[in-house]
Description:
The chain has 1 helix and 10 strands, in the order αββββββββββ. The chain has a single domain (3-210), classed as Porin. By secondary structure, the chain is mainly beta. The radius of gyration is 22 Å and the shape is elongated. The protein starts with a helix and ends with a strand.
Amino acid sequence: MSARQFWIAVFCLCMFSAASSLAQEKNEIGGVIGRIFISDQGIKANIADPTIHSGKGLSFGGEYARRFFVTPVFSVSGELVGIFNPDEDLNAGNTNSPVVPTDYKQFFLTPAARLNLFPATAVSPWVSFGGGFAHFSQGSLLDYGGTNPGKSTTSGVLEGGVGLDVRLVGSVYIRGEARDFWSGEPDFPLAPTGKTRQHNYFVGGGVFWRF
């Protein structure tokens, strides 16, 4: 056996050993913090500033996953992702044409499947895809004054995400992630956009524990 073959064999053995150890850590749980980004949307009405501008709401989340299949090259997990945005500020129209609420709350809950690459190494990129529901709870007042006629809504949502896991020590690691929650539009009866769905991009990171 050549030196090159020897070190390849050692590397493979280490990878399989690490994967075996990782397979014993079937569960993971953690929390994330970040912001949700929503693109401006045009309003189909003849008013001043006919565009809905959304803030970048500070959002919090919790995630749980269970690993079902592990190899040195990839692993497959089922995960449950919950993200809460308690204050998404809005702005559109003017004092003569108040059309959107001052703010709303968002909540997303999505079961998903996640594929990690090189799960036995210290750095593991991943992709996620799933679906669940989204809930929007609107404020009672309109931006620029008046009572908001819109109502809170619940819709189906599709989730797609990418991320990177980096092991810190033992079973603790940090995660950076970006997820798109493609949900139904909030109910804005005074500000029709002509659309039925919107993208809600969450970008954040957090700390996780495997057990």
